[in-house]
Amino acid sequence: MLYTAPMRAVRVDQFGGPEVLRLVEVEDPRAAAGEVVVRLHAAGVNPVEAYIRTGQYARLPELPYTPGGDGAGVVEALGEGVSGMAVGDRVYVAAFLGKTGTYAERIACVARFVHPLPDGVSFGQGAALGVPAATAYRALVLRAQVKAGETVLVHGASGAVGIAAVQLARGLGLRVFGTAGSDAGAAAAKGAGAHDMFDHSQDGYATRITETAGARGVNVVLEMLANINLDRDLTLLAPRGRIVVIGSRGRIEIDPRQTMGKETAILGTTLWSTTPEEYTQIHAALVAALESGVLRPVVGRELPLEQAADAHRAILTDRAVGKIVLTM
Ligand SMILES: NC(=O)c1ccc[n+]([C@@H]2O[C@H](COP(=O)([O-])OP(=O)(O)OC[C@H]3O[C@@H](n4cnc5c(N)ncnc54)[C@H](OP(=O)(O)O)[C@@H]3O)[C@@H](O)[C@H]2O)c1
Description:
By secondary structure, the chain is α/β, with parallel strands linked by helices.
């Protein structure tokens, strides 16, 4: 189907500060063979999009580009050969590994990156899945290989990845500890199901985690800011414990000996490394968790598309309370 009317999209013509995110009119996308055009109602804003926008990231798109891999909306057109969905379906887009550009009114997207959005899940919530919830699932299940009955510390439970991790971990039968740096963030994580919350901005919080964990210890740490916490995390772990490094913004010195006696492991993760098979597994699990109510993304802040620059400032500086989304 051919569209002629222009649409609005955020475009980056040069790498730089948040001000390089400009709202412009561009040609409407067309659904090529195997693609779906989605009219977007919401786009998720992720820290990685701010890193990429500065030009200081390992993988950079060609300029100019439209940021964003997460979004949700309604199917508007199907390209040749696409089956299994229909015009008018509510869907979420998780296109981080493919052609991105959800900071826009529409996106043409390879069909396998488009998934059903169950009834009762808002478009804003649907924009919190592709990067945050997929990362949380990948870290818990594919990297840490958690088992029911284990204790997980979600270190940074108030943000988008953290809240998804809390909910998924509860669904998997874990005891869930979380940290946050504000009362609002702690309340959001508690509302998502965390059994105990700790304040990572307060001295001595790690001692309180150890006391609360008791003899069972902490089996898994999902770490959102490894450059601050990794050395201390090693002291919290139970024997055979695992730390999954999800986020890090610098270097840190650790004591490797801490890993030896308890045979603990530090595991990295990045969504970029997701294989097609893992991608299928992750989104099957996320759709099931949405349908069952285990996964209920928390949208902390909605901004109109034209305020993408403000959203990028907030994602790196403000205390987190769930997901920041742009609305169209
Ligand atoms: N590896 C991957 O593939 C992947 C994928 C997605 C995200 N990430 C990374 O994971 C991190 C979280 O992403 P997000 O989308 O959840 O971001 P977000 O919504 O902005 O949340 C950031 C989280 O980090 C927490 N935090 C701040 N200071 C902390 C500290 N000293 N110790 C522990 N946690 C602290 C925040 O807590 P307060 O605001 O309450 O202090 C908040 O819970 C980011 O660094 C992001 O780049 C990596």
